[in-house]
Write a structure and sequence with these properties.
296 residues, 4 strands, 61% helix
Length: 296
């Protein structure tokens, strides 16, 4: 049904990578494992008995390293391995606790530390306390996050192995990360965009991260937001290969601040660099208006 409504992201490379990481934890699932990415900005993943594991695109925005991602996949893989069935809420929550316990055992056996999983759940807890959660997350049978954080933290060993991410792991996920980010922007969830992208660990997304953060700050418009947004645009523009969107974002910021001559210059610089038809039409419209306003 998810494929029928277009919710599944067709990304074979991402699917193969996720399956490979999960099989490292559950080699006995070889030949029976399928992982799909669902186009949804929430921080969620789930498994369906006999069908596989489904990971929301928004979850990839929350993970900072491969060990954190492995903790999620270990939990969902445990559901498949145990062949859990959710007949009622009480049984479902008992299954969730068992899946977490098995996940930690498999992570240890694979030489992956438990601590990063605790770190991820701690950040998810902070996000929910700060901004709330979506209806889909609210009805989830996953354990209460505060209890989950406590259990994972208690299970973390003081002498855990140091974790080094394999080269290129983040680049494998760049497409689904950018999709999750765009979905949050489409929902105008600017406070969540700022909360997530303010984290230095998400610099791995590159200019898409900076552009989205600047735009969200500009629209949210709390005290100091526009100053921060202007600094981000200026930093992007100083790059040798500055993205055209940095100039259009800067122009919008100047326009909102009443700095019409600066906005006019920025729109002109955008038109010099962009071939996007829709963006050019929009910029040309405002540039014509600004030329009239600043003619005197």
């Amino acid at each position: 049904r998810l494929k029928q409504i277009g919710a599944i992201i067709e990304s074979p490379d991402v699917g193969r990578y996720l399956e490979g990481l999960t099989l490292r934890l559950f080699p006995e699932l070889q030949g029976a494992l399928k992982i799909e990415v669902v186009a949804h900005p929430s921080a969620n993943a789930f498994s369906l008995g006999g069908e596989g594991i489904y990971v929301h695109s928004g979850l990839f925005l929350r993970v900072h390293n491969e060990a954190e991602l492995a903790a999620i996949l270990a939990h969902e893989g445990a559901h498949l391995w145990h062949q859990h069935e959710q007949k009622n809420d009480k049984e479902a929550r008992r299954n969730e606790i068992e899946a977490d316990r098995t996940a930690r055992e498999r992570l240890r056996a694979a030489g992956i530390p438990i601590g990063p999983g605790a770190d991820l759940f701690q950040r998810l807890l902070l996000e929910r306390k700060t901004l709330g959660f979506s209806r889909r997350e609210a009805v989830s049978t996953h354990p209460a996050l505060d209890d989950r954080v406590r259990r994972w933290a208690e299970a973390t060993d003081a002498d855990e192995p140091h974790w080094e991410d394999p080269s290129g792991w983040s680049q494998r996920l760049s497409s689904v990360r950018e999709l999750g980010l765009q979905q949050l922007l489409n929902r105008q969830d600017y406070a969540r965009v700022v909360l997530l992208l303010d984290d230095e660990n998400l610099r791995m997304i590159g200019s898409a991260r900076d552009l989205a953060l600047a735009y969200a700050l500009q629209i949210r418009n709390l005290s100091g937001d526009r100053v921060r947004a202007e600094a981000i645009y200026a930093r992007l523009i100083r790059r040798e290969q500055a993205p055209p969107e940095a100039f259009s974002g800067q122009a919008r910021l100047f326009l909102r601040s009443g700095r019409l001559r600066e906005a006019r210059t920025a729109f002109g610089r955008y038109l010099e660099r962009s071939n996007a038809p829709r963006g050019r039409r929009w910029a040309e419209h405002y540039l014509a208006w600004l030329e009239l306003q600043t003619a005197s």
